Amino acid sequence: MIRLYLTFVLLVSCFSFGQTTSLLEEINQRQVQQTRNGMISLNAWAGANLLSGGIGFYTTSGDTRYFHQMNAFWNVVNLGIAIPGIIGTYKKSSELTFESVYKRQKQLETIYLFNAGLDVGYMATGWALFNFGNTKTGELRHRFRGYGQSLVLQGGYLLIYDLVMFALFKKSGKKLDTVWKNVTITPTGMGMIISF
């Protein structure tokens, strides 16, 4: 009877562990794919801004010229973030445990939420530069106003980008929460059973 009981417990545990492992693989793959898609989007935005910014800087004047210049400058930084970000999604994770997947999930959510706060700061700085430019004359006026408009645009795009990425990761993180909520430890006469 004890042998039958232990065999049953072992089979149930293996089945539960298999389900949890496949869920962890699914969530890990979703994290990688969402990050990759986000970095592709950021690269596309950066490329478009570099191209239009370069052309716009040499074909326009006044505020618009400096608007395009700052767009190009800003998106050199975006490319510096997005290209390594894409490359990083092709590296295999050496560890696929509940802890590692959960930790990565929370880290991604935190990064995107923190970045959204920075984006609001970029927009506020752009607004301040634009208004500061209104107090100047000549080329300084155009430069501050153009740079300010660019920062508002770039910060606005990044705010939308970061909030969308946060929402996507938050949604996939709910599956991890369901696994966590279903973990039970049951004491038995000879030990304990951990079920997922």
TrEMBL record:
Domain of life per record: Bacteria
Pfam family, one: DUF6992
Keywords associated with the record: Membrane, Signal, Transmembrane, Transmembrane helix
Leader peptide range in chain numbering: 1-18
Transmembrane parts of this sequence: 42-60, 72-90, 110-130, 151-169
Name assigned to this protein: DUF5683 domain-containing protein
Organism phylogeny: Bacteria, Pseudomonadati, Bacteroidota, Flavobacteriia, Flavobacteriales
